[in-house]
Amino acid sequence: MNDPRVSALALLLLSFDFSYKSCRWTGRTSDEELPGWSSHLLFRIFIFRPPGSSSPLLNDDCSSLSAAAYQSVPSQATGVCSALTALLQNFGKGGGVKGPAAQLLHTLAPPICVFAVTHFQEQAWTSSSSRDGARRLQTTLLKVGGWKDSAHLLMGSEQEEHGGILTGVLDILQPQMSKDSWQRCEAVKLVFAWTLLQVTRPSLSPHLHRLLPPSLLLNDDYRPENSMLGVRCLHHIVLHTATADLRHFNQAEVVYQAVFKHLYTNQAAVIQLSLSCLLDLLLVLEKSPSSPDPSSSHRKPCRHDDVLRLILTHMEAEHKVALRRVYASALPLYIDRMGVAVCRHLKRLERVLLGYLEISDPPEETNRLKILDVLQKTIRAAWPRMEARSDALLLCLLRLLVDVSSDRQLGESVQRELMDQAATSLRLLDACSHGRVQLLFQQVDSSCCSSDVLGCLATVMEK
Q: What Gene Ontology terms describe where this protein resides (cellular component) (predicted)?
């Protein structure tokens, strides 16, 4: 600790520890008076923050600080972590912390936790030594307070007198996560996201009004890294909030509109997270389209249709490999959810299936395998409508078998998987067309096909 201000902090902490024990030994301060007597001093300790012990502030909302601006932060943060760790270790000597001491620790824990989380993440303002120091500080805090892990620290348990420290942490973060100030400090959004992702149901619902607005702010930011962080936070909220609470004040609809707009971006990572979030959020807003409605014989279009329609529209025109893989990976889950309601989208879906099966995606052929999965799910869900489309799909699958069998650059396992999935699709097509596919197979000229293709067709005809 070369910085004199860090040394001063350490001395202040140790002098407080000595004063605390002296008052207890001499009887000058009772257990009931202790927390009030010390609170002012404690908050002064944590307000005393050496310049650079946390990350510097930005001058505006658009710029980002250079690495040089953070140069002095790690060494000072390491010193503060060491001082706080020493104090906590001394504070926890002699067994568990109970009574007024436990209340005191509960008051101290939120700022300590925020400081530790700020500096144990791999960011521009940390180094390996400062990260190690911050992790030790967090571990010591958990040990002294008797908390099992960070989630227990934040949420507490029903049996505990003081509960978790989530309220205290949010009290610290919330003023800095407002619309006008959250972008001024790079660390704040990361600490907020870390805190939110530790909280699960049922502890999240009571704090929804404090957790949702900052998550929406992150989601709406123009920078992809912030949008991704926001979508992760919103997805976590959707997964860990009671449906009734999320629907209250139309909050679920607000989240839906905020995430849905990301489907119009060209950032593959943002779209991938958004599609995953929407899949879970849609069940909060409405029933699954495959669920029968006893009150009506007609399945009305819903938000599931809006999302699937947009996915298929983008898939038709998309040429970027990364985006094609994202869409192809998400599509099977949406087709599964739609069930028989996928019939409303068969025309557009057929064009997507044919287009994606024709184009190779080496070396793993992820797109083709996912699209074959989509084809199989579609045939099973909407088989009465598939006979009329069997000719185009049959030709496409036969071309796929010929292409795959002649492609020597494909790995043997990938080649076998593609041929097996294509054979499964052919069997399903044959079943929905009442054996018509097998009749067409008999007209195949064996001199034009490799032994692998003929073997695959033979297995289809046998089963």
A: cytosol; nucleus; TTT Hsp90 cochaperone complex
